[in-house]
Amino acid sequence: MSAFVVMADDGIAFDGAAAASGPLGGAETAFVALAEALAARGHRVAAYSNCRAPLDHNGVRWAPLAGGVPDRCDLYIGNRGHRVIGLSRPRRRLFWLHNPGGYLRKPRFALRLARYRPVLVTTGAYHRATIPAWLPSGGRVVIPYGVLDRFRRAAEREPPPPHAVFTSNPLRGLDWLLDLWTQRIAPAVPGAELHIYAGPAVYGQARNPAMAAVLDRAAALGARGVRLHAPVGREALAGVLAASRVMLYRGDPGETFCLALAEAQAMGVPAVVQPRGAVAERVVDGETGRVAADDAAFAAAAIAALADDALWRRWHRAALARQRGLGWDEVAARFEMLIG
Asked: Which residue from 48, 146, 247, 322 has the least number of CB within 10 angstroms?
């Protein structure tokens, strides 16, 4: 049965067209993908964000949040910010979380949660565990992110050159990775390169001083095999991942899902991570990559993935077989079941 679904986000300016044409962060990518998947399942979907003007895109009606949202709907999904928790008067109200839940202790969140009692939607076991147990809500549900189809259709391929890739937030461990790369990894693998696709544009920022400092350091390490690129949209990113040998990402306590790793693994790219935040949930240790206990183990696994073709083939094939992830239609079906 078709439902009227309203979604609202009070973060950076974006809409469905922005997601199709340029780089976006994981939370924004997920918001757009869910809206379009719900529309494809036959629902009437209205998405409200800080976009500049109304837009119809892939079956979703986008409009600026400043103009208000419909008073009634079947399913309301507030995304991240406290201002969107109590909007509309729906049959079922959800609050979709993308960051660790500790911030929900703040009065501006806790008071609204107590008043409106939305179902809290998180993306995995680690994420759910970050929500304070005493926090009032209408229930708690875990629904993982989906992976866009363009990342789920990769074919088996031969080992690429020793080119590692980093596609996450530079403030989440890139400085640490540059140290490990220059001191241990690159010296051990002739011709090794670390390709970084990252920048403030992903997060709707013109410039972030702390991020700029890390990226400037990366740009200066060309002689050590470090290659800095501007962030790219999802279509181009699929091509980047197809040519990459391994994804290197330490992880971060603020990482509640890591769509970047999910996309890489779905493409058959082995990954080396540490057990920080949720990233260990994205890698099957010893089968699709390595969850390294410490820096020495991380460097050793990175070197092996870059240099050992037999190991790479095992991890690559296992990632293709086991790590396609959920499609967004499957994720939309899980949200659909919450309408009641």
From this structure: 322
One domain for residues 138 and 156: no
What is the count of structural domains for the chain?
2
From CA 245, how far away is CA 157, in angstroms rounded? 11
- DSSP state, residue 133: T
- Tell me: do 154 and 113 sit in the same domain: no
Interatomic CA distance for residues 29 and 18, integer angstroms: 10
214-238 pLDDT, tens digit each: 999 999 999 999 999 999 988 999 9
Q: Read off the pTM.
A: 0.93
Instruction: Say whether both 111 and 189 belong to one domain.
Output: no
Task: Say whether both 16 and 160 belong to one domain.
Answer: no
* Residue 193: how many other CB atoms lie within 10 Å: 20
209: phi > 0 → left, psi -120 to 50 → alpha, else beta; which? Answer: alpha
Judge contact between 170 and 210, C-beta under 8 A: no
Same domain membership, residue 260 and residue 228: yes
Reported as type and span, the H/E element at residue 76 is strand 72-79
Range of the structural domain that residue 132 is part of: 4-146+326-336
Distance CA 238, CA 32 (A): 18
